[in-house]
Each structure stands twice: as structure tokens, then as C-alpha cells.
Amino acid sequence: MSSQEGFDKINRLGKTRTPFLFIISYDKNKLFVQPLDKLDKDIFYKLEEWRNYPAKKREKAFTFSLSPVNFTQYQNVMEKILEEIRSGNTYLLNLTFATPIKTDLTLKEIFTYARARYKLYFKGEFICFSPECFVEIEGDTIATYPMKGTIDAHIPDAKKRILSNEKEMAEHVMIVDLMRNDLGIVGTDIKVEDFRYIDRIKAGKKELLQVSSRITAKLPEEWQAQLGKILDKLTPAGSITGTPKKSTVSIIDRVENYDRGFYTGIFGIFNGKSLRSSVMIRFIEEQNSQMLYKSGGGITIDSDAQSEYKELKDKIYLPL
After folding, report:
1. pLDDT digit string (tens) for 49-82?
2. Which residues belong to any copy of the Chorismate-utilising enzyme C-terminal domain (predicted)?
3. What's the number of domains the chain is made of?
4. Residue among 267, 287, 242 at smallest CA distance from 121
5. How many angstroms separate the Cα of 166 from the Cα of each of 140, 170, 196, 281, 319?
6. How far apart are CA 205 and CA 207, in angstroms?
7. Residue 38 lies in a domain
């Protein structure tokens, strides 16, 4: 359905306290909204303990390989972004690429076995197994958890290194400021309640440390009837665009050579009282029997091309 139809439907379902699932593409041109009691049989989700499928452990080995963009091509695109930063058009931009992968697992099998806080399987078209919350709403409090900063957990003093890295600190501060401003559009009493805490993420055979913050705001009474409007104002997520958001999104449209589609969009569940949602990263889609794994990272004036290229590849994994 169209953007306006989708957000209007979210408002209506929220007003009547009807539980539903929603999926919003990165550019908001595609929305899927469906009550949970009428949910299509080929859609499966997990948002922490909220899920509609049984857990199942992997019992067989699997193959996995990737064919990432070459470093020279990555560096050329990154240089275009650095020029935009030097010109003052952006300060932080999340650059992403689509990487062809090969595995003997199906999308459904990857989804079923993947270990992640947030997961979505959509009709055999795409899956995500995301570590990143977008927003949660409990009572009249909305909370967001921007995630910026990644390091291999097995590097000596990894936690100290990531928290003391000036580039990573600057990137994280910019996203926290952006998300504070975004929450200020829909709520009041904005607070950064937990600044730069560490999550440990399973990344295939590796473990990654990722840095997040918790930011909260108070929503107006009867926010449920405005839920579509709230989500429209907050998207696309600042953590996967950059800042300032409007000009940065315009640059992304020019420098990325593919359609993000639902990748870096959001999905979530409203259960009639509370809302949970996730940023759709760690994302695989299937096109013409070819699996594409979409991944990326934030670019700032202090970014090093080799390090950013490594982060792009490190995020291509199956957490099985």
C-alpha cells in the first residue's frame, strides 16, 4: 500500500487498540500493515520474547561465502562522501552495499536458526536478524536505542578501544543528538538515560561489541491514535541515514548504486498496549535465485577506508 494509506491504517488500528504488525521500507514508499489475527501464514517475527513460530536449533553444517564490492570501488564511493562532508553537506553518512552471498541454506532456514533479538521472515522475499531496536513504547514513554560503533570482541582491550576511539565517539554523539531531536518532534521531556553502553553480538564464528545509547521521551495522551503519524515523523531511522538527515538522505540516493528497499527500514508489533520495533539491518533478500546481503557503516571526516571496508565485511555473517 502507499505511504499515506499505510500510516493512516496504523492510526486506525492504534486507535482501536488492535494488535498488528507493520513493515516500513527505508524510503517509506512501501508499507505492509496487517492485524495479527489475520496475519498471512508466510510471515514470521520475533521481537525479544514476542514471536509467532517455534524455536529450532540447527542440526546440520552449512556453507557460506560472499563476494563483496572490491576495495577500490568502495574507496571511490567513500571519497565522494568525504567531499560532501568537506563541503558541509553532511557530517555522518551511513554507506551501504549489497553483497552477493552463497549458502546451501534457504532463507527460511537462516531465519529459523539465526540467533538475534529481532527477526523477520517475509514471504520468501527477505529476512532480517537485527540486533538494533528502533523504538519501544511502554505506557506513555517512548525509548530509542541508536547503535553506532562496532569492533571485533576478540581484539585485545576491545571494549576500551571502541569507547576511547575519537572517531567512534564523534559518530555516536552525532546520532544521539539526531535521535534526541527526532524524539523531540513527537514527545517531551527528552532524556539520555544510558550513554554508550556495550552489547555483545554473535556474528557467525566471531563476536562483535556494539555501542548503543538509550534515549527516552514522554508521548501525549492517546498516542495510540497517532501511531502512524509518530512513525512517519521518526523514519527513516537516524542510525542508518546520518546527520543532518534530509541532506544526508539526498546524498545516499546519489552515491549508493542500488535500491535499499526494505533494508534499513523498520518493522514492529503493536500488541494493543505496547509497541516494539527494530531497524532492519543484518538483512538478506532473494532476487532471481540470488541472495543479496545488505550491510554498511557510518562515514565521518575521520573515517579510514580500510577500517570501514572491513566493518562492511564483518557485518556479513549468519549468526547460527
Report:
1. 999 999 899 998 999 999 999 999 999 999 999 9
2. 72-315
3. 1
4. 267
5. 35, 6, 13, 25, 29
6. 7
7. yes
